[in-house]
């Protein structure tokens, strides 16, 4: 039986439980042929199948990233897809595999950053997640932390507290001053007191 018959859309389900269950089973069995079929059908004519396939794939990646790392190029190509679900789903998958395949994801950064600036909130969230992970690695920190700072400068105010919290883990003596400066400059522009408190908490921990 084809793996497609077990997707949510094939079962006439509007929830994600079948896709999540399928991902869990593939992780448990390490079924590489199922993963290959899912990747192949990212270009299926049926957009519902495309969406289900990327969902299962990034759910697999979040549980066992090494099962999907070899498909980083395919995920990179999907970033500019007209199907928004494919675009942010691919970004989610890349975020999941970054620490397992950092060199490959680093090579995809131009496309990742381009879509982050014009994509959905979820897309940008995962792009920042990718930058944080790469910046945590010594060989990529010098290149990626300035890119992370640029996201902190330009992101919507609503996203700033979360991005500040995410980025705090890769702040060091060399980049602390620049990080502090950006957060301090943006602090007055935050509309909600709860947002300001979160950013102040990050600043206080520095």
Explain briefly what this protein structure is:
By secondary structure, the chain is mainly α. It has helices at 17-29, 32-40, 47-63, 72-78, 84-97, 102-107, 109-118, 121-135, 138-154, 160-167, 176-186, 193-205. Helix 1 (17-29) packs across helix 3, helix 4 (72-78) packs antiparallel against helix 5 and helix 10 (160-167) packs parallel to helix 12.
Largest sheet: none
- Uncertain segments are none
For the record, the CATH class of the domain at 1-67 is Mainly Alpha
Series of secondary-structure elements, N-terminal to C-terminal: HHHHHHHHHHHH
SS summary, helix count: 12
Bin the helical content.
Answer: 55-70%
Q: Please state roughly what percent of the residues sit in beta strands, choosing from under 5%, 5-15%, 15-25%, 25-35%, 35-45% or over 45%.
A: under 5%
Q: Summarize model confidence as the mean pLDDT.
A: 95
Q: What name does the CATH topology of the domain at 1-67 carry?
A: Leucine-rich Repeat Variant
What is Rg?
18 Å
Oligomer: single chain
Structural category: mainly alpha
Could you give the distance between the termini? Answer: 55 Å
The CATH architecture of the domain at 1-67 would be: Alpha Horseshoe
* Shape descriptor: elongated
Number of strands: 0
């Amino acid at each position: 039986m084809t793996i497609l018959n077990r997707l949510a859309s094939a079962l006439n389900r509007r929830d994600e439980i079948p896709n999540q269950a399928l991902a869990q089973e593939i992780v448990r069995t390490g079924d590489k042929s199922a993963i290959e079929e899912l990747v192949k059908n990212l270009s299926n004519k049926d957009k519902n199948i495309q969406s289900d396939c990327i969902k299962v794939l990034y759910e697999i990646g979040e549980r066992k990233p090494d099962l999907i790392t070899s498909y980083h190029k395919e995920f990179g190509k999907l970033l500019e897809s007209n199907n928004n679900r494919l675009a942010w789903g691919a970004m989610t998958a890349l975020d999941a595999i970054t620490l397992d395949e950092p060199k490959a994801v680093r090579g995809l950064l131009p496309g990742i950053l381009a879509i982050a600036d014009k994509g959905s909130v979820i897309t940008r969230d995962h792009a920042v997640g990718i930058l944080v992970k790469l910046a945590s690695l010594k060989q990529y920190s010098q290149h990626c932390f300035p890119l992370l700072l640029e996201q902190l400068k330009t992101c919507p105010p609503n996203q700033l507290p979360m991005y500040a919290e995410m980025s705090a883990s890769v702040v060091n003596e060399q980049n602390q001053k620049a990080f502090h400066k950006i957060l301090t400059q943006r602090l007055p522009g935050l509309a909600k007191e709860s947002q300001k408190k979160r950013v102040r908490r990050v600043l206080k921990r520095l």
